[in-house]
Request: fold
Amino acid sequence: MPVTVQVISFVAAAPARVFDLKLDVDVHAASQHAAGETAATRDGRRQLTLGDEVTFQARHFGIRWRMTSRITAYQRPDEPADAVGSPRTSGRFVDEQVRGPFAMMRHEHLFEADGAGTRMTDRMSFAAPFGPLGAVVARLVLAPHLRRLLTRRAAHLDALVRAGG
Reply:
């Protein structure tokens, strides 16, 4: 049974800017430099879009992990929302594991205008392998670890924006 972790944070930038930063593989890897994270795409592009795959490598729990995810949904915040052409104040994208350590992993990223910035929601659903034992490890070990990881990434993004990056 999948476990869901949700982190809601605020970033002091417009939704389109935050959206673009979240899809930048270099920004993503930099947010986890302590884990030695790297990110690579097949074509070398650093900005992801619909259908793109990215392979991450990082050290967690003393083990080197490798996971490839694909962008399966993509809706920019600044694309027209209606026939009048006014920009949307929200957007989203979804990445899903295609190869890696999880039995399944789906990460939905939501971006909503909120005053002078963006309310960003990370909702990650995952299941660990190894049946009932994996389910226990997912709830007791992986869920808190992933919540900290998502919180750290959001803080990195906000600090980057505030520093003018």
User: Anything to note?
Assistant: The chain has a mean pLDDT of 90. Helices lie at 15-22, 25-30, 131-162. Residues 131-162 form the longest helix (32 residues). The beta strands are 3-11, 38-41, 53-60, 63-75, 90-99, 104-114, 117-127.
